[in-house]
């Protein structure tokens, strides 16, 4: 399959997933670019499936992105479903999800910063790893769940805050 055909196929799946999400009762979203409330993490058996939009970013430690490059991510959409995961067009077409709870201190150690720098409430956080056949490691491949409508993903050293999006 050519790159263009694969993108078209991924885009079609994305549209189908997003159409299905709008029919799910009880899905809500925080207004874009507002402070998001901190809610308890989802249970280990729950996954943050659905559409998510980047609402803000934070530099924590060393980053490969400039502020302008990081700012360009605000408003981008990520999708997490059974047939697709990631930020289109850079997605995994066969995702699996592994959920664990980790100490915030260990997250800070991974990024070579102090625990207070990561901005996660509490001492533990749910981490979800997106696993993909073929070893995909695109943006959004690791998620930290801060509540039912709030995720954080780290890419190139920048912490991106995502809010659940049901506007599509």
Report the oligomer: single chain
Strand order of the largest sheet: 4-3-2-1-9-8-7-6-5
The span between the termini is: 28 Å
- How many alpha or pi helices? 3
Q: State the shape.
A: globular
* Main beta-sheet annotation: 9 strands, antiparallel
Radius of gyration: 15 Å
Order of helices and strands: HEHEEEEHEEEE
The secondary-structure class comes to alpha+beta
Look at the structure and give the mean pLDDT. Answer: 77
What proportion of the residues is helical, as a percent range?
10-25%
Strand content: 25-35%
Number of DSSP strand runs: 9
The overall number of domains is: 1
Low-confidence sequence ranges: 1-45
Walk me through the structure:
There is one protein chain. By secondary structure, the protein is an alpha+beta fold. The longest helix is centred in the first third of the chain and has 20 residues, at 3-22. Strand 8 and strand 9 form a beta hairpin. The chain has one domain (3-164). Mean pLDDT is 77; it is low at 1-45. The protein is globular. The chain has 3 helices and 9 strands. Strands 4-3-2-1-9-8-7-6-5 form a 9-stranded antiparallel β-sheet.
Summarize the structure.
With 168 residues, the protein is of the alpha+beta class.
Give the arrangement of secondary structure elements.
Elements: H1 3-22, E1 50-59, H2 67-71, E2 77-80, E3 85-87, E4 90-92, E5 95-103, H3 104-110, E6 124-132, E7 142-147, E8 150-155, E9 158-164
Antiparallel strand pairs: 1-2, 1-9, 2-3, 3-4, 5-6, 6-7, 7-8, 8-9
């Amino acid at each position: 399959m050519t790159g263009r055909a694969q993108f078209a196929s991924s885009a079609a799946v994305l549209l189908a997933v997003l159409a299905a999400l709008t029919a799910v009762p009880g899905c809500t979203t925080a207004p874009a670019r507002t402070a998001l409330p901190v809610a308890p993490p989802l249970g280990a058996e729950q996954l943050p499936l659905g559409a998510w939009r980047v609402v803000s970013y934070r530099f924590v430690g060393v980053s490969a992105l400039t502020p302008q490059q990081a700012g360009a991510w605000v408003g981008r959409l990520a999708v997490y479903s059974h047939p697709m995961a990631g930020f289109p067009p850079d997605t995994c077409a066969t995702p699996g999800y592994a959920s664990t709870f980790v100490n915030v201190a260990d997250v800070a150690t991974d990024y070579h910063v102090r625990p207070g720098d990561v901005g996660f409430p509490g001492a533990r956080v749910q981490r979800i790893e997106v696993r993909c056949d073929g070893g995909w490691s695109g943006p959004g491949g690791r998620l930290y769940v801060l509540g039912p409508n709030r995720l954080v993903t780290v890419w190139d050293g920048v912490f991106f805050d995502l809010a659940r999006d049901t506007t599509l």
